[in-house]
Write a structure and sequence with these properties.
This protein is of the alpha+beta class. It has three domains: about 110 residues, Acyl-CoA dehydrogenase/oxidase, N-terminal domain (Butyryl-Coa Dehydrogenase, subunit A, domain 1); about 90 residues, Beta Barrel (Butyryl-CoA Dehydrogenase, subunit A, domain 2); about 140 residues, Butyryl-CoA Dehydrogenase, subunit A, domain 3 (Up-down Bundle), CATH 1.20.140.10. The strands form three sheets. Strands 1-4-5-8 form a four-stranded mixed sheet. The chain has a four-stranded antiparallel sheet with strand order 2-3-7-6. The chain has a two-stranded antiparallel sheet with strand order 9-10. Helix 8 packs parallel to helix 10. The longest helix has about 35 residues. It is globular, with a radius of gyration of 20 Å.
């Protein structure tokens, strides 16, 4: 039995990769990270919107493509390989799913149509439900929200945010509300934006079906974790490919370093550890859409396992490149840092493994 991406999914992923190769070269990424490429970033984002990224999961009745999460995982893998400097996981996977599972009919009609038409863009901040810091937290009272949300993602040029309190109730806030202060955080990964949101009597539109019902936020987080794992798989594969290419060219003592046993072993170990990660991510995405009884456990396992493998790959790939691996000349650090942030977002491996243990009754 073959288990993997279908021809359509692989074709979609290839289109994403080809677009990023053409439009988001390493020089372009450098300019965007340095804050000098806002127009370039907008062009990249619009080009990927033209491919349909904003409407992947949205039902056809709301103007979407109504594809399953495995399609989204294939896209996320492609975006990770190209360290795409655009919103995706929060804006076009987690936010639509939060509204689809947590919103009422009127909220679905209003927001899903606008997402698929690219008229609104969502950031999302659910950290306070997963593992809040002592001085952070969101409190929803009636139609008002107060508090502090950390590490909200996809907030660049967002028109709205979806936030959650520590009970799992989710709400939508408009960034134009006078009670909001949005602070861009300084993170090691500069290919994406991470934000702190300060809230004081901000008007909130509560997603009704998420109140006293943890299923919507659980599904939203599960999907986000699978997307982060897929993104890390794509980034890790590029680091391996770059290591192999470098080992074939770089010479020491009159020989290419790829002929040395130690370098061979590092490249082989990276490839052997990463290869099963494709299957676990694909299976987790398949379970999310088709095997609900296994979905949450597989999401936890894929996120925690890929996080550890990605950490190993990024470390060894940098070692294969020697001193050059730490320089900006090769740009290897962009993939390294992306993998590092993916590891921590929506729960570190330790937190996610603890959740997996509880799911299994340990």
């Amino acid at each position: 039995m073959y288990f993997g991406l279908s021809e359509e999914q692989a074709f979609f992923q290839d289109n994403v990769k080809k677009f990023l190769e053409d439009q988001a070269s390493l020089d372009v990424i450098r300019r965007i990270v340095a804050g000098e490429g806002d127009d370039l970033q907008k062009e990249i984002h619009q080009g990927l919107i033209n491919l349909g990224l904003n409407s992947l999961l949205i039902p056809e009745e709301y103007g979407g493509l109504e594809l399953d999460l495995l399609f989204a995982a294939a896209v996320s893998e492609g975006l990770g390989s190209g360290i795409a400097p655009i919103p995706f996981i929060g804006s076009y996977v987690m936010a639509p799913l939060a509204i689809m599972h947590g919103g009422n009919d009127a909220q679905k009609e209003h927001y899903l149509n606008k997402i698929s038409a690219n008229q609104v863009r969502f950031g999302i901040g659910l950290t306070e439900y997963i593992a809040a810091r002592e001085d952070a937290g969101v409190e929803i009272t009636g139609n008002k929200v107060n508090g502090r949300a950390l590490f909200a993602i996809d907030g660049d040029n967002a028109t709205h945010f979806i936030l959650a309190d520590n009970e799992g109730a989710m709400c939508i806030i408009n960034v134009s509300d006078p009670g909001i202060e949005i602070v861009k955080l300084t993170a090691i990964d500069k290919t994406r934006g991470y934000f702190e949101i300060l809230l004081k009597d901000v008007n909130a539109e509560v997603l009704e079906n998420s109140v006293n019902n943890k299923d919507p936020i659980t599904k939203t987080i599960d999907a986000g974790r699978i997307m982060l794992a897929a993104d890390s798989v794509g980034a890790s594969q590029v680091m391996i490919d770059k290591s192999v290419e470098y080992a074939k060219e770089r010479k020491q003592f009159g020989r290419v370093i790829g002929s040395f046993q130690a370098v061979k072993h590092m490249c082989a170990e990276m490839a052997a550890e990463l290869e099963p990660c494709y299957a676990i991510v694909w299976h987790a995405a398949h379970c999310f859409s088709n095997v609900p009884e296994e979905a949450r456990l597989m999401a936890c396992q894929s996120k925690s396992h890929v996080s550890e493998v990605g950490k190993m790959v990024s470390k060894k790939a940098t070692e294969v490149h020697g001193g050059m691996g730490f320089t900006d000349l090769l740009g290897l650090h962009y993939w390294f840092k992306r993998i590092g942030m993916n590891r921590q977002l929506l729960g570190s491996p330790e937190i996610v493994r603890e959740e997996a243990g509880r799911i299994q009754g340990f």
